[in-house]
Write a structure and sequence with these properties.
The structure is a single chain. This protein is mainly α. Helices cover 65% and strands 2% of the residues. A two-stranded antiparallel ribbon has the order 1-2. The longest helix has 29 residues. The C terminus is likely disordered. Bound molecules: protoporphyrin IX containing FE (HEM). Protoporphyrin IX containing FE (HEM) binds next to helix 1, helix 2, helix 3 and helix 6. The site of protoporphyrin IX containing FE (HEM) has 31 residues, from helix 1, helix 2, helix 3 and helix 6.
């Protein structure tokens, strides 16, 4: 009988990666819209946002590695990075590969943002929404567990909370920099460091 350990690990790590990605997106949105005002320290939220993204990328690596080691689906190392090479539910799996590539690019760009330039880096960071959409469709369409009664609420909760937090952010524009009487700008202690 086939040992299902890697298959179970692959599915569990896929869902873990998706939840961590969602939490990282939410932390980024909290950083920008600051629903709790001064109660949250901007530097701590920034660290949490990045840490969740790094953990998410680690879970994606485990997802890929366990899929390669498993014998239910035949996925090569090359198929983890080149969209369209995996024979299992090819279109939906390709979306996961695209999401993983985009996630790696965005996470690696964190420490390089000064070198890339803040404007270009911010534009790249907006691609997180595309990454989240790709990962959602990939998980829903490629996943074995999608039909389980507990799985759909996870996707619904993730999409619902990201849509809600994005709407909140759009309605609560970031605080403008403080100005002195002479009109000079001074740093606003409330304003988080842009990420
Ligand atoms: C950001 C990157 C990724 C995320 C967040 C992600 C997430 C997920 C999720 C949530 C599932 C459903 C698991 C289940 O229903 O139990 C899944 C399934 C799957 N993923 Fe990914 N994935 C990503 C990247 C990849 C990559 C790079 C591959 C490589 C080929 C891949 C291949 C697969 C396959 C074959 C399945 C079907 C497994 C099953 O039947 O559950 N994924 N993924």
């Amino acid at each position: 009988m086939r040992d299902p350990t890697f298959w179970i690990l692959a599915r569990a790590s896929g869902l873990t990666a998706y939840v961590l990605l969602t939490m990282s997106v939410l932390a980024g949105l909290v950083l920008k819209s600051r629903p709790l005002g001064r109660k949250l320290n901007a530097a701590a939220v920034t660290d949490t946002h990045r840490f969740l993204a790094f953990l998410g990328l680690g879970a994606v690596a485990l997802h890929g590695l366990t899929l390669v080691l498993d014998s239910t689906v035949h996925i090569s190392l090359a198929a983890l990075v080149v969209p369209g090479l995996a024979p299992y539910r090819p279109a939906w799996t390709a979306l996961g590969v695209l999401a993983a590539n985009l996630m790696a690019l965005i996470v690696v760009s964190f420490p390089l943002r000064k070198r890339i330039g803040m404007r270009a880096w911010r534009k790249l960071h907006w691609a997180t929404y595309g990454l989240f959409a790709l990962a959602t469709v990939h998980g829903l369409a490629a996943g074995t567990d999608t039909s389980a009664p507990w799985a759909f609420p996870i996707y619904l909760g993730a999409v619902g909370s990201v849509v809600f937090a994005t709407a909140w952010r759009a309605l609560n524009r970031p605080v403008r920099p403080l100005t002195t009487k002479g009109g000079d700008h001074v740093p606003n202690p409330d304003r988080p460091v842009a990420v």
